[in-house]
Design brief:
Order of helices and strands: HHHEEEHEEHEEEEHEE
Number of domains: 2
Shape: globular
Largest sheet: 8 strands, parallel
Distance between the termini: 58 Å
Number of helices: 6
CATH class of the largest domain: Alpha Beta
CATH architecture of the largest domain: Alpha-Beta Complex
Structural class: alpha/beta
Strand content: 5-15%
Radius of gyration: 20 Å
Number of strands: 11
Length: 310
Amino acid sequence: MKEIQKNFYTIVLSLIGKKKDYRGNQRNILGASPYPGRGVLVPTVLKFHELARFLASPRWTMKGRTATRQLKDSKSNNTALVLGNGPSVNKLNPSAIRDLNVDVWVVNDFYKVKFAQDLKIDYYVLSDMDYFRGPNLENRIKLLPVVEYASTHNPIFVLPHWMRDAQSTHLLHQFQIVYFDDREVASWSKNTNPCYPRGYIGLTLYKALAFAIFLNYKEIFLLGMDNTEFLKYRSDSNNRVLLEKFHGYQDDAIDYDFSNHFLDGLAGALVSYAHTFGDLKRFKGPIFNLDVESLSMAFQKLPNHLWTRK
């Protein structure tokens, strides 16, 4: 089956003039956000490629969907603070919200942020495959530190629907878990309701925001949604597309190599970033950005807020 799929994509890529990537290497996968070259054929193929992935994705059971649907509007009297892992997250003053009735949402490797241990967190959102992939689930390098951190904070975990029956969830058995539909149809839908396939690019922070909107908080404050990673792109003598790790915590010095991720190199990478900004327009609600320097411009910014450091 994989060989048939490989041959099919080779034929399609040849027909649309994309059988080689930007470095001249043969390709048999479309990759993320190919540069359309101002034409209509590549975006059309990409839309149907996304639809094919959606149809092949694991489906969500009606029972699981019903459990999530019952949470709708359950936080209409509460306030949420949704934290990304961009450098601006360090503008937060944890002591300013310590005694407030605020639900704090965090994502991915938040436990590495310097004030993480001092903050009460309520929801921990994970969606990247790297946390759950691998045969030896007892030794998941990325997941175990999250579990260790969460064991002292007891958050509710928010996970993709395909994790519901996965073996990795036994590492999270001590926590309450809720699920969201992680299938993507961004070319076909503008949906942000976590009970249905999402109509936006698959960033974990966006999934956290979508779930918070679904719970209908009276106010949602954002911090750490910098969307400035693209400023850290660089290349080398081999024309690799390299991205310096750029978070609100100390990273290792090894850059991400996206050379094989983007068919058209930096052109494709920047097309992907255009969706990162554009898809935020699909999120509706009383959402406020506490980082006035954030490049995310979809929401009202609040300068000199009491929760941020002066």
